[in-house]
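In response to the reviewer comment on reproducibility (Comment 2.3), we provide here a single inverse folding case reported in full, input and output, so that an independent group could reproduce the run without further information from us. The structure tokens appear first.
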């Protein structure tokens, strides 16, 4: 069991997850009906929630084989895109999203049911330049 799996199994109050994603090289991707966007190489945070089945939801995100349904599915099934870490918390989804410093690359990404006007639940952190 991975760390976050152990954590989710032990604590039923956890409902929010944040995926730390690496895009290894610049990609141009269609994100469902949102349209086509350029994703610079670098680090991204995606924040979501699943009140009843957090473990199943995060496992689904990490699974390469799935029918693309959510915006995040279009990103995570692309080549050169990888989840490197999973953070779980009992904080609200938008609360955690707002704490993640980063740039909005795709307005509205994962934010269809966001009531806090986050603008996007995907944040781009850096080009990975040193
Ligand atoms: Zn939000």
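Designed residues, in position order:
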């Amino acid at each position: 069991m991975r760390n976050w799996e152990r954590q989710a199994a032990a604590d039923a109050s956890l409902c929010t997850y944040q995926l730390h994603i690496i895009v290894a090289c610049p990609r141009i991707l269609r994100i469902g009906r949102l349209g086509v966007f350029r994703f610079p190489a670098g680090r991204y945070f995606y924040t979501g929630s699943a009140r009843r089945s957090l473990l199943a939801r995060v496992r689904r995100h990490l699974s390469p084989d799935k029918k693309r349904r959510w915006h995040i599915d279009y990103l995570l099934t692309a080549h050169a895109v990888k989840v490197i870490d999973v953070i779980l918390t009992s904080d609200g989804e938008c609360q955690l999203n707002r704490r993640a410093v980063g740039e909005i690359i795709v307005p509205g990404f994962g934010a269809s049911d966001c009531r806090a006007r986050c603008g996007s639940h995907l944040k781009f952190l850096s080009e990975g330049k040193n």
